[in-house]
Amino acid sequence: MSFQHFDLHPDVLKAVHQLGYVEPTPIQEQAIPVAMAKRDLVGCAQTGTGKTVAFALPIVHRLRPVQRGKTRALILTPTRELAAQIDEVMRGLVAHTKLYTAAIYGGVGIPSQERALRLGTDIIVATPGRLLDLLNRGVARFDGLEILVLDEADRMLDMGFLPDVKRIIARLPEHRQTMLFSATMPQEIRELSRHLLQNPVNIQVGRQSAPAEGVRHLAYPVDAHLKTELLITLLQKVGMETVLIFTRTKIRAERLARQLVRSGFAAARIHGDCTQSQRQKALDGFRTGHYPILVATDIAARGLDVDGISHVVNYDVPATPEDYVHRIGRTARAQALGDALTLVAPTEEGYLSAIQRLMKVDIPRQTLAGFEVGSVPPPKARSDGWAKKSSGRHGHSSPVAPSRNVNRRRGRQHRNSRPRPAATTR
To answer: CA 328 → CA 127, 198, 239, 378, distances in Å?
Structure first.
């Protein structure tokens, strides 16, 4: 099947060919005709299978007769990176039409986003928080809205966006086409869809919560204090060319990226505390190969579409099994091959078991010599208020000065121990 099978307008087909799309993927093959028929739908497919194009093409085809001054399609997505990425796809598809698209998300200036909403830009791609902020300012108007898309719907629920999403939807016309897309579709989202959609068509491509095809899984049991050195050893192996590393927290992402840079690797980091310019610089450097290693929190588990990621490394095992599916979906995209490596500390074994149950697979294990669990005891902390900073796996260390808070506490204790002067009267 080719994209001509969908009877798309010639202007849209021209953009499709220029973007290099040859054959529709299974989710596109099933979802595009339903969307073009203006039916509500719930689409669930593995990461990297082309869900963005599955809803973007019908939107551009349907809105091609331009109606100036009205926003007619709204796409809500959980992260800035995904919003920017969808907007880029939309810009390519509208290249030969007179439609306009704009991205609305935090971390950047508001004036240009306000202008896009006031002018009634045809297609708006937005994160819920920034859009709700502009709605509350009275900037946006959606009385002419025809299409609503919730992309990565389950992630918006995980990230606490559901109240914002409901507030936004309350301001939209009731008579509209609504589409939900995600790689996983838990029961909570199914329940939500019953309230938002009218007689939707449910499309399931592949087994739900299954990993992307072409991913080779491998787990490395290791003590927590040896994870960084094991990671460095793995990175020095031949074949780890473009590596995306996931940590559980922003602090751990920042710390690990600095450790890798000190070890001689060209690494960047992306997490919620980075400014938008820092995030964009890291992603651009990762895409161009300037930074072959990107350390990230789960902010990059959705929406990061980079060709040729050879390895995804779970430095921390995700606490939610679905997050594992999304993380490893950054590799082996578009029928390519990739590797997913997971460093498993003894306290994370339960998380790994939950992942295996969800995916219905047994992840093989491999132990590197010298990194066996329990082989090297963790460095002992000194009891005089100074911490040991490990510079090697065999206990070599250097002192790190106590924090200011420790010094303040000591100062208060010292002041409190001084004898107070006797009371005097005047």
So the answer is: 23, 33, 17, 30
Q: Tell me the two tokens of residue 189.
A: 């989202």
Q: Which of 71, 66, 100 is nearest to 176 (CA)?
A: 71
pTM: 0.67
**pLDDT tens sequence across 353-365:** 999 998 888 999 9
Across-strand partners of 294? Answer: 244, 268
d(CA 14, CA 96): 8
Q: In this predicted model, what pLDDT tens digit does every residue of 328-361 receive, in sequence order?
A: 877 755 455 788 999 999 999 999 999 999 888 8
Q: Can you list the domains of the chain with their CATH numbers?
A: 3-205 (3.40.50.300), 215-359 (3.40.50.300)
Cβ neighbours around 416 below 10 Å, total: 8
